[in-house]
Specification:
The structure holds two protein chains of two kinds.
Chain A lengths: L2 H20 L2 H27 L6 H17 L4 H23 L4 H21 L1 H4 L5 E2 L14 H23 L2 H11 L1 H6 L4 H27 L1 E2 L6 H14 L6 H19 L3 H15 L4 H26 L14
Antiparallel strand pairs in A: 1-2
Chain B lengths: L3 E10 L2 E11 L4 E5 L6 H9 L6 E6 L2 E2 L5 H6 L2 E3 L12 H11 L15 H13 L15 H14 L4 E5 L7 H12 L6 E6 L2 H4 L5 E6 L2 E7 H6 L1 H8 L2
Parallel strand pairs in B: 3-8, 3-9, 6-7, 7-8
Antiparallel strand pairs in B: 1-2, 1-4, 4-5, 9-10
The chains are: A mainly alpha, B alpha/beta.
Chain lengths: ~325, ~240
């Protein structure tokens, strides 16, 4: 039996059972938030972790999707049209982002995505006829897929969980595919990849589109979760927070962004209830991660467990070597 | 018909002329050695041939097909493979994965985002076969970070050979190798079948001399001497470039 498969099945069951274990709607909502931010971080991780392209404008992509949903709903369209429109808007804007930003890499890439993200934020803030400016747009309803309304905390959590599972399974498939190998290759050795016959730009473009799709999905979840969207959700801090999730959890790993999202959301919502200066707390945690586990929480923990295991093995073998040679056991007398 | 032809190729970096009116015609199956002292423009010539930099003027032809404006990646698909003087491999991955990427580069499979790469037994078998050609099959699963410099050189060559090129460009394949390793790489290159045209850059002509059919001597971006091994070695200008007057 495949241990990994068992672990995944166990985790999925545990995630579906989670709202019944914690019961309190407030905490179920926190769990939903973690999952929707995890989808965002997974999308960002495709670019940051697997492509080596750091984006500081990703909140703009999820924001466009969220605004499109809100706009279509207030215009009187149904949820199906609104969600499809939201994803489509997110993808179209992603294609524009990619076309402009992929002309560069490294610091220039960061600066272009930052600028593009700020343009989206500026539009949300100033294009009042569509976005309602600083007041934002309120969404009064949540969809009811297959006749199941998502109004309660638990039902919304379940819907978010399904989207999250699709997102992480999709990421797992892509990352382990030939295309995923090509992606990581363009991160580590773009020049060689080009000489080997790979279309580096196109590979990055499709990775950007996948990243944008996941961001748009999280944007749709975001607007339905909060039932409200305002320019604040598109601000630079939101993009930076996503980046912190990816880096603190562990870039270029599947679980890293999920752990990072959990960390940020918990500190923001739960710790802030006890500590007024929760921002300081978050900062201190990141400093600790950078110092102790610069590769991120998930790979860092794996490393610690492995070295701990090796240490245990070694001390065992040292003890065995140091032990005096045991007296040969007397041969048992044959029983009569 | 030449396998690889370069016509009146020129390239300047600012005021520095690194390639000046270079003409080359390499016959199919030929082993051509390009020698020259440091800064002669050998690697620049390779970068112009593979398209990693664009020439100011002149043309590059692959089997009579003008590829001067063809993208580097497309030249790979047309049968051109190269190795790098400075090792350019994928350091986070295994040797096998490095070879697999070389095969993937020319396979339509590279756009496939839903299959699992490490379950593609056909591709992996071909990657193993490529490693076998350079004698690294036994350490296919080893991480590249744990291999020696000489082994990395051989991975470079394995990746180029894996693509089954028609024209193979080797940029100082012996650079930094010990005497034993040089002999190994030399044997390996001698075993390359004759339907592959090989163009090799070497800084130190003694090592690569017996691999070459013809030799081109480059100096300050210009072709100074070209001819058979004996002709170039006997030419007084070779002596001048390498030893000074």
């Amino acid at each position: 039996m495949n241990y990994r498969l068992v672990a995944v099945a166990f985790a999925v069951v545990a995630l579906f059972a989670l709202p019944y274990a914690i019961a309190e709607p407030y905490y179920v909502n926190i769990a939903s938030q973690i999952l929707l931010y995890a989808v965002f971080a997974l999308g960002l991780n495709i670019l940051v972790g697997y492509c080596g392209l750091v984006s500081l404008g990703h909140a703009g992509l999820s924001g466009v999707a969220a605004y499109a949903v809100a706009y279509l709903l207030t215009a009187g369209y149904g949820h199906t049209v609104a969600i499809a429109g939201g994803l489509a808007a997110g993808l179209i804007v992603t294609a524009g982002f990619a076309a402009l930003a992929l002309r560069a890499s490294g610091i220039s890439f960061i600066m272009i995505t930052l600028a593009l993200g700020e343009i989206i934020w500026g539009l949300a803030y100033r294009w009042i006829s569509i976005t309602n400016g600083d007041n934002g747009i309120t969404v009064n309803t949540r969809p009811a897929p297959f006749g199941l309304p998502l109004t309660s905390a638990v039902s919304f959590y379940n819907a978010t969980l399904i989207v999250f599972l699709l997102a992480i399974a999709g990421c797992a498939v892509v990352v382990n595919s030939p295309f995923g190998a090509a992606l990581a290759g363009t991160r580590d050795q773009p020049r060689r990849m080009n000489a080997l016959g790979f279309h580096v730009w196109m590979i990055r473009f499709w990775a950007f589109m996948l990243s944008g799709l996941l961001s748009a999905m999280s944007g749709v979840l975001f607007v339905y979760y909060n039932q409200f969207i305002s320019p604040q959700a598109l601000a630079l801090t939101a993009s930076a927070e996503g980046l912190l999730m990816v880096i603190s959890g562990g870039a270029a790993t599947l679980l890293g962004p999920v752990v990072g999202a959990a960390l940020v959301v918990i500190v923001k919502n739960v710790v802030s209830a006890y500590i007024a200066r929760w921002n300081f707390m978050l900062g201190a945690i990141f400093v600790a991660i950078v110092v102790l586990m610069p590769e991120g929480l998930v790979p860092g923990t794996v490393r610690l467990v492995r070295s701990g295991w090796r240490l245990a093995q070694r001390s065992k073998s040292v003890r065995a070597a140091a032990a005096p040679i045991a007296e040969p056991k007397p041969i048992a007398e044959p029983k009569a | 018909m030449s396998a690889l032809a370069v016509k009146n190729l020129c390239k300047s970096f600012g005021g520095l002329r690194v390639t000046t009116n270079v003409n080359l015609a390499v016959e199919p199956g030929e082993r051509r050695l390009i020698i020259g002292p440091n800064g002669a423009g050998k690697t620049t010539l390779f970068n112009l041939i593979t398209g990693e930099i664009a020439p100011d003027s002149g043309a590059v032809l692959l089997f009579d097909r003008d590829i001067t404006r063809t993208a580097t990646r497309k030249r790979a698909h047309l049968g051109m493979a190269r190795t790098y003087q400075i090792i350019t491999l994928f350091p986070r991955d295994t040797i096998l994965h490095n070879a697999t990427l070389a095969l993937l580069g020319l396979s339509p499979l590279r756009w496939n985002a839903w299959l699992t790469l490490h379950r593609d037994h056909d591709l992996l078998a071909r990657a193993r076969a490529a490693l076998k050609r350079v004698g690294l099959e036994h350490m296919a699963g080893r991480s590249l970070a744990e291999t020696s410099y000489g082994e990395k050189r051989r991975v470079e060559i394995a990746m180029a050979l894996a693509q089954e090129p028609r024209v193979l460009l080797l940029d100082e394949p012996f650079a930094g190798l010990s005497i034993d390793e040089r002999r190994d790489v030399s044997e390996l290159l001698k075993a390359v079948p004759r339907d592959v045209t090989v163009v090799m850059i070497e800084h130190d002509m003694d090592i690569a001399l017996d691999l070459a059919d013809r030799i081109t001597l480059l100096h300050f971006g210009e072709v100074v001497v070209e001819g058979t091994r004996a002709e170039v070695v006997a030419d007084p200008r070779t002596r001048e470039v390498y030893l000074g007057e």
